[in-house]
Amino acid sequence: MTRMPALYIGHGAPPLLDDPTWSGQLAAWAQDLPRPKAILIVSAHWESAPVMLSASRAPLVYDFGGFDPKYYRMTYETPDATALATRIAAMMPATEPVHQHTSRGLDHGAWVPLRIMYPDADIPVLQMSLPTDDPVKLMELGARLRPLRDEGVLIIGSGFLTHGLPFLTEWRIDAAVPGWSADFDTWAGEALARGDVDALADYRHQAPGLPYAHPTVEHYTPLFVTLGAATDPEAPGLQVIDGFWMGLSKRSLQVA
Length: 256
Known about the structure:
Blueprint: E1 6-10, H1 20-32, E2 38-47, E3 52-53, H2 82-91, E4 99-100, H3 108-117, E5 125-130, H4 135-145, E6 153-159, H5 179-194, H6 197-201, H7 203-206, H8 222-229, E7 238-241, E8 244-245, E9 248-249, E10 252-255
Parallel strand pairs: 1-6, 2-5, 2-6, 3-4
Antiparallel strand pairs: 1-10, 7-10, 8-9
Helix pairs in contact: 4-8
């Protein structure tokens, strides 16, 4: 079986679904990947410890407000993912068991990009909670999950490389890019190109634009699950998407 890559993607808000540019980039990216047997996605919008898994099949979580009513009517009904949940539970040490919710579905950090990337909804999907903001621990979690890639599972960390929503002054897709967003994006892009995991992990001290780029860090830290799942976390990955959306960095990464 072909080894799947691991991805870090920006997921945007529901209006991403109506943006032909970014939607086109995500759709083209998915078409270039081997077809996954299943998908495991870690979203910024579910922070919970110990590690938790979504239900194998459940209604979507509409964890947003103020958008067009059409987004609350959207569905994404994927096949049963019980086999993947069982496999992940078996991978965890006895001291760190996972809990599977029986009713929690995918939140918008998962279903919005997946509706674009895999619109037929014919691949089993599980969402995993983000159990910590410690880059080292998240990389350890990613490393534990790494064998799934040889089993056809696509591992995705879903966040946003900059996410300073309180500091945005324009709410247009083509809004001007704030300096703090541009500075953080440049710094992160250069560190990713060097494979400088230590710098990326030390973002609180090294990254320009903090805390404006990340007043809270849950949209940045899924990156470390992706890097941990890489065959060599210090090998520069492929930065498949860059640019900005509403002034926020949509830079996204694929690692081998």
